[in-house]
């Protein structure tokens, strides 16, 4: 396991940052974004924006792609298209590995529709058994793609 993967897992499991925050935080400083701001801008995206939608680890990875390839000049369609292509590349590879990029599908449960003690307990179990592996996988895939 790489240093970045270990660091992301520590942020996710030990420090209780969400999946998006954990992925973004281990790459952000290399692209000029400090960790405090990375934690802030990604804090609402974990757990598929708390609705089981797009996997938070994938959201964090998309933010890393944007930090490296994102459009910064108005009308720069080359940069925009390149960033979109790089985002698709990551998402397609992640989906190929895991079968989906949707949080509730990856978790095997929709713990977001009804939040009660039972779903909170289930989410905690899934957090450790499934989500941690997805965070690690997203970081590993980003590294393999040169981030």
What does this structure look like?
The protein is mainly alpha-helical and 147 residues long. The protein has one domain. Helix content is 70%, strand content 0%. The longest helix has 28 residues, at 117-144.
List keywords for this structure.
8 helices; mainly alpha; single chain; 70% helix; 147 residues; globular
List the helices and strands and how they pair.
Elements: H1 3-14, H2 19-25, H3 35-42, H4 46-52, H5 56-69, H6 77-98, H7 103-107, H8 117-144
- Which runs of at least 5 residues are low in confidence (pLDDT < 50)? none
The count of domains is 1
Largest sheet: none
State Rg.
15 Å
Would you list the SSEs in sequence order as H and E? HHHHHHHH
Quote the distance from N terminus to C terminus: 16 Å
Mean pLDDT, all residues: 95
Query: Number of helix segments?
Result: 8
Helix % is: over 70%
SS strand fraction: under 5%
Number of strands: 0
- Broad structural category: mainly alpha
Shape: globular
In short:
The chain is mostly helical and 147 residues long. The chain is built from eight helices and no strands.
